[in-house]
């Protein structure tokens, strides 16, 4: 499947500002390959593509005071997003590779230690592995109302478990926290999603079962037809589309993901 991706945003900067921009997916991943990409920005004094400690592409820029804007376009070949197999196998902690270990621990927005009792009460009788992860995603989808404008960047998984309302970020944080509370490695993924309504950047989950990472999206029954990961981390704080070291105001933002015509 060939997808066309476009992301545009503008910000007002109160002073010269160092920015980290994470809108460019890796050129190749397990289920995607970037065929063409182009990033345009307003004038900057510095612009370098680096990698963060998780290996994610991260654009470092220094932009002058005033309006800063970017436009990212890409054409990406994507394998259809498969469902998580019911018989996917959970690993014992001592069997986990080093890259998965960190994703069993609590993090800033995924307080799995505070949700351990709730996770055990709800899911301890479900068979470990794929069935348990799907049961967690189904529980979150049925018990948390999806509604824009009800949470903010400080909302945590514990808040969502209490208030039962949120957006994709909050759904993902709660799924991650329940998984980690039950010793299932789970990480947050930011990305582009085909068929998202309204179109936006998307947050979903990747769980480590049967020796591989699998996509889980609790905001929809079934599976998204296609997902392009931009970055992965412990929670949304690690993969923010824009991180600024000065006061910054978002003026506008739009995302478009559609099927492209093969050349």
UniProtKB/TrEMBL annotation:
For this UniProt record, the keywords arranged alphabetically read as follows: Hydrolase, Protease
Q: Which domain of life is it from?
A: Bacteria
**Name of one Pfam family that matches:** Transglut_core
Q: Name one GO biological process term.
A: proteolysis
Record-linked SUPFAM superfamilies: Cysteine proteinases
Q: Where is the Transglutaminase-like domain?
A: 160-220
Q: Name one GO molecular function term.
A: peptidase activity
What PANTHER family has UniProt attached to this entry? Answer: BLL5557 PROTEIN, BLR5614 PROTEIN-RELATED
Could you identify this protein by its name?
Answer: Transglutaminase-like enzyme, predicted cysteine protease
């Amino acid at each position: 499947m060939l997808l066309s991706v476009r992301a545009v945003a503008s910000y007002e900067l109160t002073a010269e500002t160092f920015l980290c921009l994470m809108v460019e997916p890796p050129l190749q991943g397990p289920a995607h390959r970037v065929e063409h990409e182009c990033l345009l920005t307003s004038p900057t004094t510095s612009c370098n593509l680096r990698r963060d400690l998780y290996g994610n592409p991260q654009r470092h820029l220094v932009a002058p005071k005033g309006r800063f804007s970017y436009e990212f376009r890409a054409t990406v070949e994507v394998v259809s997003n498969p469902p998580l197999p019911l018989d996917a196998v959970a690993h014992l902690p001592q069997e986990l590779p080093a890259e998965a270990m960190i994703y069993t621990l609590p993090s800033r927005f995924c307080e799995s230690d505070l949700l351990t009792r709730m996770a055990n009460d709800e899911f301890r009788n479900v068979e470990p592995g794929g069935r348990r992860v799907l049961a967690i995603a189904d529980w979150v989808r049925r018990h948390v109302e999806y509604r824009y404008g009800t949470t903010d960047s400080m909302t945590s998984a514990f808040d969502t478990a209490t208030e039962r309302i949120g957006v994709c970020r909050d759904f993902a944080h709660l799924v991650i926290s329940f998984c980690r509370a039950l010793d299932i490695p789970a990480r947050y993924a930011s990305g582009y999603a085909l068929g998202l309504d309204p179109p936006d950047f998307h947050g979903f989950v990747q769980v480590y079962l049967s020796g591989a990472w699998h996509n889980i999206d609790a905001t929809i029954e079934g599976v998204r037809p296609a997902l392009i990961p931009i970055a992965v981390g412990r929670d949304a704080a690690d993969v923010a589309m824009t991180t600024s070291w000065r006061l910054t105001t978002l003026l506008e933002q739009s995302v478009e993901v559609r099927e492209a015509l093969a050349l």
